[in-house]
Design a protein that fits this description.
With 440 residues, the protein is an all-alpha fold. It is 57% helix and 0% strand. Among the domains are: 3-112 and 150-216, Hypothetical protein af1432 (Orthogonal Bundle); 249-355, putative deoxyguanosinetriphosphate triphosphohydrolase fold.
Length: 440
Amino acid sequence: MNWHQLLSTKRFGQEAYHAQRNDDRSEFQRDYDRLIFSAPFRRMQNKTQVFPLPGSVFVHNRLTHSLEVACVGRSLGNSVVQKLQHNHPENLYLGEIGSIVSAACLAHDMGNPPFGHSGEKAIATYFSEGNGRILENEMTEEQWKDLICFEGNANTFRLLTHQFNGRREGGFVLTYSTLASVIKYPYSSIFSDIKKQKFGFFDAEKADFEKIASELGIVRNAENPNRYARHPLVYLVEAADDICYQIMDIEDAHKLRILSTDETVELFMGFFDEARQKRRRETMLLVSDRNEQIAYLRSSVIGLLIEQCAEAFVANEAAILEGKFNSTLIKILPEISVNAYKTCSDTAFRRIYRAPVVLDVELAGYKIISTLLEHFIEAVLHPEKAYSKQLLYSIPEQFETENTDNYYKIMAVLDYISGMTDIYALDLYRKITGINIPGV
C-alpha cells in the first residue's frame, strides 16, 4: 500500500463528480462537518456509553465520547504527519491525516444501538437463542452470521454508505479514505474469529467495501486472503478510541464515587516514572478541587499516550503499509505505559463494568431491545396481520420494510432499532407493551 493511493478525496456515491475543489475546507474537513451536523450523530447524545444517562452527575454518552475521540484522533494524526512529512514530501494529502482520522473517529460509534454493548448482544442473541432462530433456513450462511453476530462496527459502515428510501446514493457520501479508516475489522462476518466474532461490514455492504478497498489499493491479508489488511489510519482511530474510553471511564468512575480519589490518582500516576510523578503531584496540588486534580492527571496521561502512539505508528510504518502489522498501537508502547494501561483495564472490568448501576442499564436495555425486535420482525414478515399493519405505520418510510427478501426486511428493522436513542426505545417499548398509553 502507498500513501498516494490511500489518501483519496473521491466520494462514495459521487464518483462521477470527482473533482479538485479550491476553497478553505479540504474534502476531509467536509467529511467532519457533514457528520457533526447529521441527525444520527446528534442522536448519540442520548445513547449510553457505559454509565446510565445523567442524573446529577454528567458522565459520558456516545456523543461526548465520540467528540473526545475525534479530538485525540486529530492530535494523533497531526503528530504522525510531523514525523512522516520529511519521508513523503511529495504527497499532496499527507498533511490531511489529522482531518481524516478525526472524521473517522467522529463516526466510529454511529452504528451502535441504544443501551451500549448490551444492545448489540440483545440483537445477536435474539437470532442465536431467541425466536429469531426460525429464520436460519431462509438465510445464506453469510447473512445468518451477520444476524447472530450483529456488530456495531459493521452497522456504522452500513449507516454511512447505505441509500435509504428517499435519500441520495452513497449515504453520507464521504470520501473513500474516511470510510476505510472506520473499518476496524476489514472482513465479513463469515471470516470473523470464532471467539471475538468482530467484523467490519455486513453481506449487504460487501461489494461496497471491496470497491473502496480496490480504489485505495488496500491489500488482502497475507495469512488469510479472505480478509483485507487495515487501512493504515485505522490504527490511529483505534488508538484514539482506546485512549479515550479507558482513561475517561476511570475519570467517570471517580465522579460517581465508584473509585476513590487515591485509587484514581494511583492509576493515572502509574503511567509515569518517579521523576514525572513527583512533578505531577506538585502541580496537581496547586488546586484543592479533587475533580480538577483528576482532570489534570487525566489530561497528562492522554497527552503522553498520544505522543507514544504516534511514535509507535511511525516506527512501524513499513509493516503497516505492507499489511503485516498485527497489533494495536497500545500494546507496543513502552513497558511502563503498557502495564499502567493493563492495570486500568483490569480495574475497569472488576470495578466499573460490573458495577450494579451499569448492569442494571444493560439488563433493562436487553429486555427492551429484545421486545422491540420480537414485535417489529413479526410485523415485517407477516405484514398482512392487523397488528402488523399498525406497527408498520410507525416505521419511517426511509426504512425498506417492503423488500421481498427477508434478509433485507430484517436489516431494515435493525436499521430502525439501532438508530433509536435510549429514551425513544424505552418510550416505544412502553407503548407497544401497554405500560404507557398516550393521554392516559
